[in-house]
TrEMBL record:
Pfam families: BLUF (PF04940)
InterPro entries: Acylphosphatase-like_dom_sf (IPR036046), BLUF_domain (IPR007024)
The name this protein goes by in its record: BLUF domain-containing protein
UniProt GO MF annotations: blue light photoreceptor activity; FAD binding
Gene3D superfamilies named in the record: 3.30.70.100
Xref: SUPFAM superfamilies: Acylphosphatase/BLUF domain-like
Amino acid sequence: MAYLSKLAVAMTQSDIDRLLNKAWAANTRRGITGALVMERGMFFQILEGTEAEVRSLFKLISSDSRHREIQLLMERPANERFFDDWAMAVCRPEGSKLKNGFSAIEEAAASPNPREAAAKPIDDFMHVLREHLLHGESTTV
């Protein structure tokens, strides 16, 4: 599952760090893995795990007042996890490949049919993001 949302309230870096640490602990308990990308007040997150756990977590995220304009962009079963080494890898898109990938997802989200338009950009971004993470260019909480 992948979604894009906007931050609804102002948060300090300390607030974000506390949120991420709580989310990492919850994801670990639930057996959820994935990655979170933060850019310009937006979150793009990929969640992996059992269908029930991922849906349950997305329901919590959707009702969290810190998020607004939440768009579910991808929901599909996967044969294997793409981010299985990370309960929650966190990064900001630095470097042209990540910035371009994030921009492509934003553009797709603004299209008339965001799920269809976002499929390829998300797949492409997942590969670039995984390479980025494998080279230790992230914060893993």
